[in-house]
Specification:
Strand content: under 5%
Number of helices: 10
Order of helices and strands: HHHHHEEHHHHH
Largest sheet: 2 strands, antiparallel
Distance between the termini: 25 Å
Mean pLDDT: 87
Structural class: mainly alpha
Helix content: 55-70%
Length: 252
């Protein structure tokens, strides 16, 4: 808990230092690390081809849909406390209250989040992360980065991923076994996403003329759209994209 308090104090200090509201949305490609990024991209394609895509195919083909939906719900619910922290850091108290109510309902009535009764109570998840928090505080996007296994990012979002890990209170209140369950659910949920978006992801990674450039374009367009006030995934009622051209293959 001391780590969380220290991280929160540091975050509030940064909020006071960052000047003038949200950073301007950029519309240029800033990729000075392209040579290094392409090495990571090659590794990620190999990881996907050899391990992730086959595992996702097995997972999606064998595990019944109600079970995968319950795993997705559980993983999403476990991430909500970290999202609420970001809502508060952005002074977005309406979203924080809605997400808190959703977490409370699904954790209790929804059996630790396996079920999603909050959806029928008009309490959808209102996603956020520390990369968005930094954007709201005025920090620039920074260079494009492709991280091994974690996929496309930016300098700002890479810092955000580390901060999200530190700010999420869930790992600090669970036993080691509980933490493993949450981690396993997160990876299983990612396998489900890879399976459901398989054709779209394959078209980017394996059938485009330059998969690195296509993935970079898709990620930056999607992320900038989300930070500009849109819904990056343009989700339908099943929680998956209506628009196949706006997506992030590595989205959690």
């Amino acid at each position: 808990m001391d780590c969380i308090r220290a991280a929160m104090l540091a975050a509030w200090a940064l909020a006071g230092l960052s000047a003038c509201g949200p950073a301007e949305i950029e519309y240029v490609t800033n990729d000075p690390l392209e040579d290094i990024n392409r090495v990571s991209h090659g590794f990620n394609k190999g990881f996907d081809s050899v391990l992730f895509r086959p595992a996702a195919t097995v997972y999606g083909s064998i595990v019944p849909k109600p079970v995968t939906r319950g795993i997705d719900n559980f993983a999403s619910n476990a991430s909500l406390p970290g999202t609420i922290v970001n809502n508060v850091l952005q002074a977005n108290f309406d979203d924080a209250a809605s997400n808190f109510a959703r977490f409370l309902v699904n954790t209790t009535v929804g059996i630790a989040g396996i079920l999603d009764p909050a959806a029928s109570m008009a309490l959808p998840a209102r996603e956020s992360d520390f990369g968005e928090t930094l954007h709201r505080w005025g920090f620039a996007e920074g260079p494009y980065v492709e991280l091994p296994v974690l996929g496309p990012s930016t300098g700002r979002d890479t810092v955000g991923k580390v901060a999200d890990f530190l700010l999420n209170p869930v790992p600090n209140v669970l036993t080691r076994e509980g933490g493993r369950v949450v981690s396993g659910a997160n990876w299983a949920s990612r396998l489900g996403i890879r399976y459901r978006l398989g054709d779209i992801i394959d078209s980017t990674l394996y059938y485009s003329s330059d998969s690195y450039e296509q993935l970079r374009l898709n990620y930056l367009d999607s992320r900038r759209y989300a930070l500009g006030g849109g819904d990056a995934l343009n989700q339908d009622t099943d929680g998956w994209p209506d628009d196949p051209y706006v997506f992030d293959p590595y989205e959690e």
